[in-house]
Design goal:
The chain is α/β, with parallel strands linked by helices. The protein contains eleven helices and nine strands.
């Protein structure tokens, strides 16, 4: 790791041949937020960042394949991403931190806690899964990989339908659906998303989860069809003394139910309450 540089409010640090982009906001003890596949640290967390910055120094890295992080391309690994996350935290002056991760971000958080236990205080894992070795996950990942290559508009539409509840789609209506699809089409790093989905296809955190001895809260979406809540409960069952809570939401629970999500995170990270 080398020292960080700042451009347009986004900081950068070198880690393992990659230039890792990250944002730092707030003050207080360290809190690292890790985004989902196909997203980045701004798109995933901007709408709720103000709910954390009063009590924490919040570090938001762009995972490899997303945002302003630039690497050499090729296959991604949880191990490499974990090193990049820790490099960003240290460059922000945060040596010990709490972790909140959603979907792929939860998988990376598990890897960080297993590999850098001295750096992690506690974790919130939203929509985590134990292993790629699940028939439904395999079929879904292969289907989405195909659409990333062949029909990105269909992929963006499918992403909305897979990742949110029927009630959410009904609430935003036709205009909201059209805007969502256009936002995805214009903002997504498609090659990076492809690499991240390919990582999802081989992700297995069962052994890492078993080694974690930190306080952990796992959160599932009761209507999540991307990562069904049973898979997140399974992750919680692998981690000694982990707690599990469910939110009435699809996969994008941080957008569908930001209030309940923030409430669970703050209660757990500050006071150990769920």
């Amino acid at each position: 790791m080398t020292s960080s540089t700042i451009s347009n409010g986004v900081q950068h640090v070198q880690s393992g041949g990659a230039e890792v982009a990250f944002r730092v906001d707030g003050q207080g003890p360290g809190l690292v937020l890790l985004h989902s596949a196909g997203s980045d640290s701004a798109a995933c967390w901007d709408h709720m960042i103000g709910q954390f910055t009063d009590d924490w120094t919040v570090v938001r890295p762009d995972l490899a394949g997303s945002g302003g992080t630039v690497d050499g391309g090729g296959a991604l690994s949880l191990k490499t991403m974990a090193a990049q996350v820790v490099a960003a935290a240290r460059a922000a002056g945060v040596e010990k931190f709490d972790l909140v991760g959603h979907s792929l971000g939860a998988q990376v958080a598990i890897q960080v806690a297993a590999e850098y236990p001295e750096a992690v205080k506690s974790m919130v894992l939203a929509s985590a899964w134990p292993t790629h070795d699940d028939c439904r996950l395999r079929v879904m990942n292969q289907a989405t990989l195909g659409l990333v290559e062949s029909d990105r508009r269909a992929m963006a539409t499918l992403l909305l339908l897979m990742s949110t509840s029927p009630a959410f789609v009904a609430k935003i209506g036709d205009a909201g659906v059209a805007q969502f699809v256009e936002n995805i089409l214009s903002s997504t790093n498609w090659e990076g998303m492809k690499r991240q989905i390919e990582l999802n296809c081989v992700s297995d955190v069962r052994e890492q989860a078993k080694s974690i001895d930190k306080p952990v809260l796992a959160i599932g979406g009761s209507q999540d069809t991307v990562i069904p809540p049973a898979l997140t409960r399974e992750v919680a069952g692998l981690i000694p003394n982990a707690q599990y809570k469910e939110i009435t939401s699809g996969h994008m629970l941080i957008f569908e139910q930001p209030g309940p999500f923030v409430g669970l995170c703050r209660g757990f990270l500050r006071d150990g309450l769920v």
